[in-house]
Amino acid sequence: MSKIAVIGTGYVGLTTAVGLASLKHEVTGFDVDPIKIQHLKEDKLPIYEPGLREKMVEAKVGGNLQFSSDLETTVSDADFIFTCVPTPQDEDGSADLSYVVAATQSMKNHLPSGAIVVTKSTVPVGSAQRIELTLDREDIHVVSNPEFLREGSAVSDFHNPDRIVVGAKSMEIGQRVMDLYQKINCPKIITSQASAELIKYASNSFLAIKLSFVNDIAALCELAGADAMQVMEGIGLDSRIGNKFLNPGPGWGGSCFPKDTRALASIANDFGIQMPLIEAALESNEKAHKRVADRVMNAVGGSLVGTTIGVLGITFKAETDDTRESPAIAVIERLIGRGAKVKAFDPLVKSYPLVGLDVVDSALEAATNADALLILTEWNEFQNLSPKDLLPVMRKKFVVDTRNVLDKDLWITSGAIFPSLKD
Ligand code: NAD
Ligand code: UGA
After folding, report:
1. C-beta 246 within 6 A of ligand 2
2. Closest-lying ligand 2 atom to the alpha carbon of residue 247
C-alpha cells in the first residue's frame, strides 16, 4: 500500500483517485477549487460518471480515500503525486502547459525527498524534462503515465484497461509506478518518458483519423446505395482493422480528440514534420458537421430560416455530462447560424449558453412543432422513444438519426421521413 496524492479532481483525477484507492492505496485528492473539494467531502460529485460515486463512497468508508484543500499536507508525506490538471488547447493549437507548470511550482517545496511525480495529464513530448526543470530538485523523480480512459466508462476503463504505459528514466523508477497497478491484469509497458508522452497523442490522433475515415465512408455508402453499418461490419472483421470505433456519427468531439490532434500537429510542426493526415481528419470532421446541417436544411426545403429543429442529445457522447467540443453543439451552431431555432433535450444537460438554443425538459417538448427531429447523441433512452408519441406533435415528419439509434423501419412505418444525403 502506497501513499498517493492526486492533484486535480476532474474526470481523470477523480477516477484515478478512486481507482487507486480501490486498489487499496492510501489516496488524498487535492484540487485548487475549494468548492469541488467541499462537495467531494460531502459525497457530491462535480461530474457525472457512471459508477464513480458508489466506488468513491466505498473507498472513503474503507479509509483509503480522502479529499483536502491543503496542498502542503496532501503532498508532504506522499510517495507518489499524480498530476491530473487540464492541458487545454492554446491559441496556436499547441497544448497549454501552464496548469501543469503551476501545479508543479506550487508543490515543489513541499515534496518529500524520493517522491515520484507522475504525470497523468496529456502533455507534449519533452514535458517530463520541463517538469524536472520546474521542480529543480534532484531528489524527485518524474514519470509519465498517460491516461486512456473514456468518459462514460471511466471506472471500468480504470480497472480493465487495454494497457498501462509508464514512461521513466530508469526501469527501477518505472517499475515502482507500475507496481501501483499490480492488481490490474493487462499488458503493461515501461518506456522512455518521451515515448510514453507520444503514445498518448498518437493513440488519440489515430482514433480520430479512424473516425473521420468512418464518417467519410458512411457518407459515400449512402450516396452509392450501400449500407454503412454492413460495410463497417465487413471491414471490422479484418483483425488488422478491428471491429471497435467504427460507428458513424455527426463528427467526433469531446475534451480530448480535437485538442490532442491539433497539439500533435503542432508538436510535429515544432520538429519540422507535417502531419497531413491529422489536418485531413480535422477537415473531414468539419465536413461531417456540415453534412448533418445540410441534410436537415435540404429536408425542410433548402432554407432553415424560420424553422424550428428539435434536437436529441447535447453531450459529445452518451453516458457523460460533458459538452466540451461536442459535435452536437457544432451542428446546433450551424443550424442556428443558418436561421433555425433549436430546441434540444439531453438527459443530463439542463442549460447551455448559446443564443438561439432552448434546452427543454423532454424529447416530446423538443419534437413539439419541430420541422425536423435530429438525434445527435446516442443516449440509450432515445432507442425507446415511440414514433407514435413524437411524430404527431411535429410540424413536419423529417427525422435525422446521425447515431443510428432508432428502429428506422418502425419509424418509417409510423410516418417518419428519413431524408437522404441524395435529397
Ligand atoms: P478537468 O477539467 O475535468 O479536471 C481538471 C481539474 O484540475 C479541475 O478540477 C481543476 O480545478 C483542477 N486544477 C487546475 N489547476 C490545478 C492546480 N494547479 N492544482 C490542483 N488542481 C488543479 O480535466 P480532465 O478532463 O480530468 O483532464 C485532465 C487531463 O487529463 C488533461 O490533460 C486531459 O487531456 C487528460 N485526459 C483526459 C481524459 C478525459 O476523458 N477527460 C482522458 C485521458 C486524459
Ligand atoms: C477518448 C479516447 O477514447 C480515450 O482513450 C482517451 O483517454 C480520451 O479520449 C482522452 O484522452 O480524453 P473520450 O473522448 O472520452 O475518450 O470518448 P470516445 O469514446 O473516444 O469518443 C470520442 C468521440 O468519438 C465522441 O464524440 C464519440 O461520439 C465519437 N465516436 C466514438 C464515434 O463517433 N464513433 C465511435 O465508434 C466511437
Report:
1. yes
2. 36
pLDDT 10s digits, 369-423: 999 999 999 999 999 999 999 999 999 999 999 999 999 999 999 999 999 987 7
Residue pLDDT, tens place only, 159-186: 999 999 999 999 999 999 999 999 999 9
Sheet with 188-191, side-by-side order of all strands: 65-68, 26-30, 3-7, 80-83, 116-119, 141-144, 164-167, 188-191
Amino acid identity for residue 352 in this structure: Y
Is residue 149 in contact with ligand 2, taking CB distance under 6 Å?
yes
* CA 350 to ligand 1 centroid distance, Å: 23
Strand pairing category for 116-119 and 26-30? unpaired
* Best CA proximity match to 142, nearest among 190, 81, 91, 204: 81
The answer to whether 154 and 138 are in contact (CB under 8 A) is no
Q: Is 225 helix (H, G, I), strand (E, B) or coil?
A: coil
Ligand that lies nearest to the alpha carbon of residue 32, given by its number in the listed order: 1
